[in-house]
TrEMBL record:
Residues 1-20 form the signal peptide. The keyword DNA damage does not apply. InterPro entries: LolA/LolB/LppX (IPR029046), OM_lipoprot_carrier_LolA-like (IPR004564). Pfam families: LolA. The lineage of its organism: Bacteria, Pseudomonadati, Bacteroidota, Cytophagia, Cytophagales. SUPFAM superfamilies: Prokaryotic lipoproteins and lipoprotein localization factors. It comes from Hymenobacter oligotrophus. The keyword Lipoprotein applies. This is Outer membrane lipoprotein carrier protein LolA. Keywords: Lipoprotein, Signal.
Length: 214
């Protein structure tokens, strides 16, 4: 499940063209986008993730939902649920009715959902790549790529609404031929959240097997 979390977060915040210097036009759009989300106490997004690999003739769709508040998040995707309260992470697998508990270490994660709108500020190059229309919404297209050439993700194409600087979708390109497209279906700024939102309540999962990996 960490893989899905990493994919979700890297996609929202990573994109580049292979250029020697950062593109000031792209930087302005990214800064406006980042400021929009950073100003929210929390946000919730429903999304569709599509995995495609032409050589392997693979195309898979998954629906997901994520709530983020600062360093805390709750992600539901493909029958799994990852809950993080900033200190502890629970990974619940519905099919097995099992939850794994581990300490949350941001340094141990490829990317944290709490960082998805600021990661471009360090370790990535980016450039303006034109305009497009998505769902009737005019968007600016920004492309980023990690400066670390060992990263298996070599490019992400991000579509940002011209009107309100919200992220409409992004596409992540991996060296193994996989292409991941994330399309935002519904976005809710500042949803109600409390301490229970980002903690696993065993009482709500009857008969759950608990595996403590701490």
């Amino acid at each position: 499940m960490k893989k899905f979390v990493a994919l979700l977060a890297i996609a929202v915040s990573s994109v580049q063209l292979a250029v020697a210097q950062q593109d000031p036009k792209a930087a302005k759009i990214l800064d406006q986008m980042s400021a929009k989300y950073q100003a929210m106490k929390a946000f919730r997004a429903s999304f569709t993730q599509t995995l495609e690999n032409q050589s392997a003739k693979v195309k898979e769709n998954m629906n997901g939902d994520i709530i983020v508040s600062g360093p805390k998040f709750r992600l539901k995707l493909n029958g799994q649920e990852v809950i993080n309260n900033g200190q502890t992470m629970w990974t619940y697998m519905k099919a097995e009715n099992e939850v794994n508990i581990s300490d949350y270490d941001p340094e141990d994660q490829e990317i944290s959902p709490s960082q998805i709108y600021t990661l471009y500020k360090k370790g990535y190059k980016y450039a303006y790549a034109g305009e497009t229309v998505e769902g009737g919404v005019p968007c600016d297209v920004i492309e980023l790529s990690p400066e670390d050439h060992n990263n298996q993700v070599y490019k992400v194409r991000l579509n940002v609404s011209k009107k309100d600087k919200s992220v409409k979708s992004w596409k992540m390109f991996k060296k193994n031929g996989n292409r991941y497209t994330f399309a935002i279906k519904k976005f809710e700024p500042n949803p109600p959240v409390d301490a229970t939102t980002f903690n696993f309540d065993k009482a709500k999962y009857k008969g759950v097997k608990v595996v403590d990996l701490r």
